[in-house]
Amino acid sequence: MPEDLEQESSESLDWGRYLNLLRRRSWYFLIPFFIGWLLVWITSWMMPAMYRSGTLILIEQPSVPSTLVPSNIAEDLQNRLDTISQQILSRTRLLHIIDQFNLYSKDRTHASPDELVDRMRKDIEIDLVRSPDRGQLSSFNVYYSSRDPQLAQRVTSELTDLFINENLEVRQQQSENTTNFLSNQLEQARQALAAQEGKVRQFNQEHLGELPGQLQSNLQILNGLQTQLQSEQATLNSAKEHKVYLESLLGQYRSLERVTDKGDTNGTVSGVAAIDRELDRLRAQLADLSSRYTDEYPDVRKVKDQIAKTQHMKQEIESQLKSAPAQSSDTNYSSAHDAGPVLDLQSQLKANQIEIGNREQSVKILQGRIAQYQEHLNDAPVREQQLAELTRGYNQSQADYDSLLKRKNESELATNLEYQQQGEHFRVQDPPNLPTKPDSPNRTKLFGVGIALGLALGAACALGAEFLDNRIFTEAEFKRLVPAEVMVEIPSISTLEEEHQEKRSVWLKLAAAGAVAFSVLVAFVITFLHG
Questions:
Q1: Bond prior to 441 in cis (omega within 30° of 0)
Q2: Fewest CB atoms within 10 Å of the CB: 33, 37, 144, 431?
Q3: CB of 346 closer than 8 Å to CB of 250
């Protein structure tokens, strides 16, 4: 408890020491404080006032959903906004604005264009605003500071128009570039597809009949040709047999003439028997053909003609046999040697030989075609592999073409959407305001800085004066100086004049402190109302 009382006593003595120090060094404190504060405050009013005009620009999303018309523009809005800002803050654009609004007219005489551009860039501020939930860029503020509030408003409005128009131009240009790129790629894909189509078409023309799709038809044609070859060979064999028969019949008929001249009829009877056998063969062949074909079939009609001719020859031979005894005693025996049947047989034999030649030629042709189609069937696996490779390239080219065509159509829709200003665009939410108070310098803030600087300067002067003064003002200082105990204290004895002087000094200090306080209060009101 004694230690606590002693600490409290020392603290109260310290506070008293500071108060006594302030009373002793009031002038050292008031004058520097007032001068320091006044200099800062006057400086704040000497600095030119800068008025700041701002506008809020919203980033509107496309009016048509992206699921219906996908955008063909890069979705990195931050990069696009940086690009637009660089274009607007370019030297050419800013010099045009400086000339248009006659900015920095007082500085043009001694400042270069690049210095004016740098100064204007410092006067322009772009503040991005992001949505708190998703962190996406939703809007941004554009500010411009100028000594003239109306000029600041006009320049801010010009910058706002530049941002909106530049964004439209950039998006339209990017969209159009994307569409042109896809158009070029589509044209290249079309040419590649046409080249693939040409290769497939040329392959089909060069290997017509060998294609995998013609395998079944080739088999059917081969089967038909083989059947036709069998029929031709059977017909050829029949024609050859008929040739032998005609040659035999012609020989027998000539023998009949010789025998008739001698009066012997046994050879004629054998020739009639041979004709009967031929008729039986022809009838059997006709029955076989009639079971498979109609009466109008060429082979059926041919066999019927042969049967009719053979029957006619048989009738002639039989009539000659019946008239042979009467003709042997007649003086006109020469009519028995009529050459009509012989000539008929010779003509039939010649026709038969021609038919045999034609049939043999048909057989050769059929055999050649059969060999050709067999070769086609043998080459079918190779052609199938070659066609598969060509088809694979064609299908890939077709898929690329269809994909690019779809993308190009979607890109054209997106480009039309941009030209109609239905895509993502900037919209002014708050038009540029007309500032009524300067944004800089912040005189209220500078007022507080002046107060702090005055207090620091006054305290430094008061403490410096106290430190340089060798006089002793407190008992503690005396005890630190003299180690002996203080036995008695001699009070200060002042004269009447000294007392009046002390009072005047106190009142003067109080008046000075009041004047300083009043000045600070008035300055604060002026700064608050007009600063």
A1: yes
A2: 431
A3: yes
Contact indicator for 167, 84 with CB cutoff of 8 Å: yes
Amino acid occupying residue 253? Y
Segment holding 230, helix H or strand E: helix 215-262
Give 54's strand partners. Answer: 143
CATH of residue 420: 3.30.1890
146 and 240 in a single domain? The answer is no
Determine contact, residues 426/167, Cβ cutoff 8 Å: yes
Q: Which two structure tokens, joined as six digits, stand for 424?
A: 């993502």
Same domain as 469, residue 394: no
Do 143 and 228 lie in one domain? The reply is no
Pairing status of strand 425-430 against strand 51-60:
antiparallel
Same domain assignment for residues 123 and 144: yes
Provide the domain count of the chain.
3
Q: Which residue is listed with tokens 């700041």?
A: 52
Distances (CA, A) of 351 to 122, 242, 270, 345, 365: 117, 11, 25, 10, 21
Residue type, 225: L
The answer to whether residues 393 and 351 belong to one domain is: yes
pTM here is 0.56
* Burial label, 292 (beta-carbon count in 10 A; 0-12, 13-18, 19+): exposed
390 and 303 inside one domain: yes
Burial class (CB in 10 A: 0-12, 13-18, 19+), 201: exposed
Looking at the structure, tell me whether residues 485 and 361 fall in a common domain: no
Closest to 103 (Cα-Cα) out of 46, 177, 156: 156
C-alpha torsion 91→97→99→104, nearest 10: -90
Inter-residue contact 224 to 379 (CB < 8 Å): no
Q: Is residue 344 part of a domain?
A: yes
Per DSSP, the three-state class of 53 is strand
> What is the full per-residue pLDDT of the chain (531 aa) written as tens digits?
344 434 444 444 456 566 666 666 777 778 888 888 889 888 888 888 888 999 999 888 777 777 777 777 776 778 888 888 888 899 999 999 999 999 988 888 888 999 999 999 999 999 988 877 777 788 899 999 998 999 999 999 999 999 988 888 888 888 888 889 989 999 999 999 899 888 888 887 877 777 777 777 878 887 888 888 888 888 878 778 777 777 776 776 666 565 555 544 454 555 566 677 777 777 887 787 788 778 787 777 877 877 887 777 777 776 766 665 544 444 343 444 445 666 777 777 788 788 888 888 888 888 888 888 787 777 777 877 877 888 888 899 899 999 999 988 888 888 888 777 777 778 888 899 998 888 777 788 888 888 898 888 888 887 777 677 666 656 666 566 666 666 666 666 667 776 777 778 778 878 888 888 888 888 888 888 876
The answer on 487 and 382 residing in a single domain is: no
For residue 376, which phi and psi values (nearest 5 degrees)? -60, -40
